[in-house]
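Journal club side-thread
Mid-discussion, someone asked how the predicted structure for our own chain would compare to the paper's figures. Pasting it here so we can look after the session.
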Amino acid sequence: MLISNYLQRYKETLLLLPKDTMLSKEDLLVDELLMERNGTLEMYYAPHNEYINPSARVIIVGITPGWTQMRIAIQVAVKGLIVGLSDEEVCRGAKEAARFAGTMRNNLINMLDTLDLHQQLNIASCEELFKENQGLLHTTSLLRFPVFFKKNNYSGTHPNLISSPYLKEFALVSLREELSIMKHALIIPLGKTAESVLQLLVGEDKLDAKACLWGFPHPSGANGHRHKQFADHQDHMKRIVKDLF
């Protein structure tokens, strides 16, 4: 289902993008796709986080879609629009193609398998969550649409998301709406920034702390501390996974 449908607003712009070529920042980080600007922060439209899967058993929460995810999502969406798919089909296809694309997806799968999540879900590997068993998975972000800091991927730290009234409120409003629809799932915040926002929702009684996998590191290759953080919390996270399922 669609939690919002900004696609209608940006459909014409997407269909005017260059075809049969890899889209660049010069193509996509343009005023026609700009949703909001706050100082050096800019939020652009991409379609993949408009689709949600209410029946998911696992919810993975990142910070914001990065440039790679934005590009892939839009290129897949354009192809879907050209062949006449519905808005929901377009957004779903964009999400499935783009989520955690690249080495980050492999890192994520390896960590989830180490926690035996695949066994609890009765699948061979968590790789299936991104392939034939995507119905078990929902992915989202604190910031539903791609946010960039000085045209670079926003990491949650410059400025600090919690310390920025603009970003904090956007994240809380978005997650309150989305998680109110999602029930009975394991929620995995990727890294300390995502954790800190979910902890705010726990404090509001909008989220059950027992449903969250606390201590899971962000899987980005740029996170040099992820191996140590994962090892430090591995036993605790395994118990959470086992107890929830």
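Post-session note: DSSP finds nine helices and seven strands in the chain.
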